[in-house]
Amino acid sequence: MTLMSRRGFRNTKRTRSVRFKLLAIALLPTLVILPLLLGVMMVRWNGKFDALLTSKVSADLTIAHQYFTHILENTGEQINALGQSVSFQDILAADDAGALAKLLEARREALGLDFLYLSENNDLNSGAARSGNWPVITRALSGTSSTSVDIFSNADLAAISPKLAERAQLDLVDTPNAVPTTRDRETRGMVVHSASPVTLPSGETAVLVGGILLNQNLGFIDTINDLVYRKNSLPDGSQGTATLFLDDVRISTNVRLFEDRRALGTRVSSAVRKAVLEDGKVWLDSAFVVNDWYVSAYEPIKDSYGKRVGMLYVGFLETPFAQTKYESLLILIGAFLFVAALSVPIFLRWARGIFKPLERMTNTIAQVESGDFSARTNLDQVRDEITLVADHLDDLLDQVQERDKRLRAWNDELNARVDARTSELREANRALEETTKQLIMSEKLAAIGEITAGVAHEINNPVAVLQGNLDVLRDLLGEHAKLGETEFYLIDEQVNRINLIVTKLLQFAKPEEYAGFVERHSVAQVIEDCMPLIAHLLGRAEIEVVRDHQSTRLVLMNRTELQQVLVNLMVNALHAMPERGTLTLIDVDETRRERPGVRITVRDTGIGMKPDVLNRIFDPFYTTKRREGTGLGLSITKTLIDRQSGFLDVTSTPGKGTEFTIWLPEAD
What we know:
By secondary structure, the protein is of the alpha+beta class. It is 55% helix and 20% strand. It contains 17 helices and 20 strands. Strands 8-7-13-12-11 form a 5-stranded antiparallel beta sheet. Helix 6 runs antiparallel to helix 7 and helix 10 packs across helix 11. The longest helix has 93 residues.
């Protein structure tokens, strides 16, 4: 890189850096920091909003709980006051049953009770159905007034009043998200049950019992709703609701199933049932109530045995509050977008006034570096420090352009002279290189062949002398030769070994004259013997070798030639997979043209060959390896296979691989 190029590169980096910094300074507060703060505020506000709704419904539940407790306490106080009243004591003293019944009925209606009766000790001992063996009765007999919520069976209610038993019955309505049940009707009754001890004139203790049936007691539940959700206590569109549950069934509610029908007989969701009735917790969260989502509060109701038998619920419709929350969020986001839309263009305009001249200078330098020496900044903006620098840059470029013209003229003249000489030298050098390569290759091949043949013949002469003199020595020694029989045997063996080496050298130098003898071979064994010969190539890449030996027949061929064929095909396959791949070697018995033989498959997953290359691979001196190959390998391979009356076939797909198939006849 030239000095001018390096300077231009550094200036480009600085200009971009200034531009990005200016944009960051202009946009970071508005588009990054402010949205982050806005997001944090919205998340925090959303949490506070939900906490406020939860706090409100918790307060609503407290009011409902206090009223429910007041009902229990007031009922107990009223019955206790009646039992201690003078009029009640006078009627007991007069032992007038008719007057007592009238008094109790009048006080029941005045107190708003569903039942009020006096149970004497003999009634309790006889197990009268309407008294039962309730804890409140037991405590009253021991002299202590008490009030509690108890669950009466339908038979208990019928013993008190058939009308109460009928009022307690509710058809269960199939409710989404409720716990599955096989029941279709609720017949039990939730009763505010109060008992007060009364001393009879005979001195015995009787019990004054009164109570209120809460099933379908709409006045009771509407009073709770009016107390909790007074007029204008909720925003428009919201609706306060209150419900009393027996177990998980709504027995008294102002929640509407339809416009003119209350949701009596519907059931609470399984999640609320588990949390409140099973775990004894207070639910303060959103809940699906009948057909909509409500901000809800549930608390368990316990009977006189301490068992959780029902729930008290208050809640208000969630949709209006959610709408208000989302509208507030949308207004806030809209205000931010409005401010950003007004301010961002102004900030960008101010920033552009700074980095635009820098970009003009950067573009001018880039054009000059690319060869356009006529490029100029030509800034006509307000005169400031940046425009002054741009003017200086234009002056420098004028000087550079003038010097460049003169240098180019000198350069063109020199180039013309150099090109003329260079073209002549290039052609001569190319011809010399080609001739040299051919001569070197020819000389190497000729020298190797002559040296190999000469060495083989020179070795043969002393070996023949050794072998002849060894035979003469045996004849001269006669019977004494047996003393060195072992040594003579070793000498014979090593002489034969030398002959074998010489024969192999002659096969290399003159393969046509010294091809060697043919013999029967197992193809699988020959393939295994070839593997060490290509081991050095397998280590150069990630090649997986898959061998599948299935053949049982023998073939008749010179072992060296068969190895030469297989090694040549394997090497070609490995060269086709320079980095990784799979080399598959398969031998299997196969009959062709009614003649038994063995099929050998050499398959690779390499680069494959195009059809025009595939048609010429068996031509002598045709090669695709350029510098590495001579173009004779596949030609010689096919010649050797044809000599044994075999077949050599090839299929190839570019990009997928190549498969060579050899078929050799079975040895007779």
